[in-house]
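ASSEMBLY PREDICTION REQUEST
Request ID: AP-0331
Submitted by: J.K., bench scientist
Number of chains: two
Total residues: 575
Priority: normal
Notes: Please return the full assembly, not individual chains.
Input sequences:
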Amino acid sequence: MSAICLDISDLSAVLPNGQRVLRSVSLAVQPGEVRALVGESGAGKTMIGKAVLGVLPSSVRVVEGDIRLEGEDLGKLQPKARRTLIGARTALIPQDPLTALNPSRRIGSQMTDRLVRILGWSGERADTRIRQLLDEVQIRDPDRVLKSYPHELSGGMRQRVLIAAAFAAEPRLIVADEPTTALDVTVQKQILRLIVQLQREHGTAILFVTHDLGVVAKISQKVSVLYAGKVVEEAETAALFAAPQHPYTRALMAATPRYTEPFASLKPVDEAVLAGLASEIAAADQAWRRPHG
Amino acid sequence: MDEGRAQRRGVSPRLWLAGGWLLLALLAAIFAPLVAPQDPLAQDLMLERLPPFWIDGAEPGYWLGTDSLGRDLLSRLIFGGRIAFIVAFAAAITACLVGSTLGLIAGYFGGWTDRIISRVVDVWMAFPPVLFAILLVAVLGTGLSSVILAIAIIDWTRFCRVIRAETMGQSRMDYVENARIAGYGRIGIMLREVLPNVVPSIVALLSLEMGIAVIVEAILSFVNLSISTDDPTWGGIIAEGRLSIHQAWWVLVFPLITLILTVLSFSQFGEALKTRFDPVLR
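STATUS: Completed
Returned structure:
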């Protein structure tokens, strides 16, 4: 087994019109590490998560680079073998806990189904496992929840169910795609705490996609800052907050609203910095196009 | 929860009214020889154009009166229901199976599959349905199975279009992506994850289609293109009633009421069933 849990190197992806949505992205996640991917909407954070999980939209094409999951190059595997590998070793904690659960199936059957049908567990074992996980995410009435349809549960409950489901098969890597964005502010904190707690107990690596620097500071060990599909800065979380190197990172931090100054107006990211980034990216694209025609 | 459900169940009289009428008509059709007061084919020129029971001159045993050949109208309506229901069930289920399967495939797989199926549906729907039906029956020959086949051939597109759109919507939901990440195969996702979510629409459409099949069968009988002319059909009775409207209005009015009630009940029943089948609306 390779030491590196997830290793993305030089990943580039394009839209049908030739525009690059991922620009030579490289990042490595060590086993048991929480890696935050931070950036504005449209920066390609979710795209990276989808690429790892093998569910890129059909219009997006990977043109360069590779993704290794525990040393296995996903691009070199047959589609079927790739699906099996991704299914067994990864899981997703999605952004919207409502649409991520099938509305016409009971929670219990949705959760055990995957363990039974994909991993070949016995029904009894799957049921025990699911109840154990529901207990870990502090659901106190598992019988009711397992019998419920998704719409009968609150957003926070649904997200707990999805967290339990993600950890149930003991994946090595979980992609958490803005798992708290769709939730109430008061619930966000509990959910974050749960994710961190389960992550520590299970030793699972997490690729945590977010636009919230506050969340980054709380949960991650390392951060990649993304802009326009390009990693502009990568650092240990503590180091990044202590001394951000890239001007964009500094601008992003300056734009974060603070509780200590409740009446200060919201600031956008500094435009001079964005202009600088735009020319940096244009230059990089030009350099990239030349060898790639 | 259970209380709320029971309450909502209580305030759905349309399910009971529509279902009640359909059940009554269906049972009458099934047990027609036992239920019908007279032989529907027996002619008696002494009893021609008897009025319904509440009008002077009515004869006991001929509740809704008789037609110009002295045949009992109620018995003819009951026996006509047999053909109406056979056509409704057989044609609607055939159209549903073909249309829903193609719609599910087109909506879920998209791309070329979808383009081909959708183009066929577009071309198909460009034909005016009733003329298409008459043409088909003329080609296939009259008879029960040709009527059923003609209706199925025309109306599968209804299912295909709606189920395709519903499937496309469902396929974009995150739970489908989740299932893909978990490692399910495409066909498995289509059948186990997506299909249960389009079933409520299929059920509603199926019931609606049964109503439509009843109308189309009546139209075909009306223009004498349905089954053999001996067996009573609702459309056939309406055609006869039209000729004697001034002497015996009841021969036209009662089959019309029967037809309207049945078609309306099918559509209402479908809507109500949809609500019952859908866990979110329930």
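REVIEWER COMMENTS: The interface with chain A takes residues 1, 173-175, 177-178, 180-184, 192-193, 196-197, 199, 278-280 of chain B (CB under 8 Å).
SIGN-OFF: pending second reviewer
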